Each structure stands twice: as structure tokens, then as C-alpha cells.
From TrEMBL:
This is DNA-binding response regulator. Keywords: DNA-binding, Phosphoprotein. It comes from Actinokineospora bangkokensis. It comes from the Bacteria. Pfam families: GerE, Response_reg. The lineage of its organism: Bacteria, Bacillati, Actinomycetota, Actinomycetes, Pseudonocardiales. Residues 17-133 form the Response regulatory domain.
Length: 229
């Protein structure tokens, strides 16, 4: 059953509201303790499977949902499929123990904003929640190399990825680099002194030119191409 965790916390302050869904109670507790140490992050609800995830999305007004893939009753992929029908669904970050898992690539194609391995560094977990809340891409570096082999449109080695990116204009490469760093559209606009609408247009152009399904796979391409080196 979904657990509401707000208690007596004053949620009127500006915080990122997070839900944690994992079938392992210890994993939920571990993630909750890490996020609870951040002053701008609040874990407001948790669940043990996809059915409970959908319930808390409807009731807890989440900004970010941390979602395990392998769960009973309804797994993470089926949950993502259902969330595509939910208006204003929270940003979903997949938590996984599996390197090079085809399910991770499928999760991104279903709308997940990123992925993290469960043994991610605590500081990186907090940073990832902040990035996802702003609409940025969340990428665990330990997964990006293997993930490339699972993305149907990008069976590229480093040289191939660099060649793909080289076809973009210098401005689009600048935008792609910032996408790869997890920047949101508004952050990219501020850094490059552009309007938000211009950045949205550039991101759409990048996706169309490279065949990336979304900004997360575009961020993977940026990493493989060496734009973040």
C-alpha cells in the first residue's frame, strides 16, 4: 500500500517533491535518507510496485518519480506506459541494478527522463533529482557506454558518434553539449543568451537530425561523441 511520508513537514517552502517506488523496502529507506539530507528535496510518498506508483502520482503532486524497473504486479515499463496517459505526469528517473539492460533503453523510449544505477553516489542522486525536476536529462556514466548498444538508431562507437555530431552546426553542438550536461531548456537559454523558444527549436532540430528519440538519448550521444570531455 502506498505510504504518505510528509508527516509534519512544512511543504509550503520551495522543495522538489519526490516519490520513490521500489519493491525492496531497504532500497526505499536508503534513497529516502539520502534525499532527506538535501534541504530542497522532500520524499512525500513511496510505493512497492507500479500499481502503487500510479496511485501516488495521482495523489501526491510529485515533481520527480524514482522508479525501479523490476517489480511484482506491475513493473517499471508497464508503469511508464500508463504514465504516458497521465496529464502533467512527474519526471521519471529509472533506478536499476542492471548494466546494459535492454529494458533501460525501452524505458527511455517510453518517456523516462533518465536512469541511475542503484549504487549511485549519494551526491549524484540528489543532483539527478534536481536536474530531472528542471526537465534535464539524467545519465549515470556507468551505463552510457553499454546503453549505446541498445539504442536502435545509434549503434555507434565513439568515432561514429563524433561523426554524427560533426554534421551539426556549431550552435547545435553547443546546445547538444549542454543537453548532455543535464541542463534544462531554460538553463541552456540563460547560458547561451537565447530565448527559451529558440532553445526548444534547437533541441527539436537536434533530435530530428540525429534520429534520437528524446533529449536523454541525445545526451548519451553527446557523451559518446566526446562533447563533455
Amino acid at each position: 500500500m502506498t505510504a504518505q511520508l510528509e508527516g509534519g513537514v512544512d511543504t509550503a517552502r520551495a522543495v522538489i517533491r519526490v516519490g520513490v517506488v521500489d519493491d525492496e523496502a531497504m532500497a526505499r529507506t536508503f534513497v529516502g535518507k539520502i534525499l532527506g539530507s538535501a534541504p530542497d528535496v522532500l520524499v512525500v510518498a513511496e510505493g512497492a510496485d507500479g500499481t502503487e506508483a500510479l496511485e501516488l502520482v495521482r495523489t501526491a503532486d510529485l515533481d520527480v518519480l524514482l522508479l525501479d524497473l523490476r517489480m511484482p504486479r506491475m513493473d517499471g515499463l508497464d508503469t511508464l506506459r500508463e504514465l504516458r496517459r497521465v496529464p502533467k505526469a512527474p519526471a521519471v528517473v529509472v533506478l536499476t541494478t542492471f548494466n546494459a539492460d535492454q529494458a533501460v533503453a525501452t524505458a527511455l523510449q517510453l518517456g523516462a527522463k533518465g536512469f541511475l544505477l542503484k549504487h549511485v553516489d549519494p551526491a549524484e542522486l540528489v543532483r539527478a533529482v534536481r536536474v530531472a525536476a528542471k526537465g534535464g536529462a539524467v545519465l549515470d556514466p556507468a551505463l552510457t557506454h553499454d546503453l549505446m548498444g541498445h539504442l536502435a538508431s545509434h549503434h555507434l562507437d565513439r568515432i561514429g558518434a563524433a561523426a554524427e555530431v560533426a554534421r551539426l552546426s556549431a550552435r547545435l553542438q553547443d546546445v547538444l553539449r549542454l543537453v548532455g550536461m543535464g541542463r534544462s531548456n531554460s538553463e541552456i537559454a540563460e547560458e547561451l543568451r537565447l530565448s527559451d523558444s529558440t532553445v526548444r527549436g534547437y533541441v527539436s532540430e537536434i533530435l530530428a537530425a540525429t534520429g534520437c528519440a528524446n533529449r536523454v538519448t541525445a545526451a548519451v550521444l553527446a557523451q559518446r561523441a566526446g562533447l563533455l570531455d
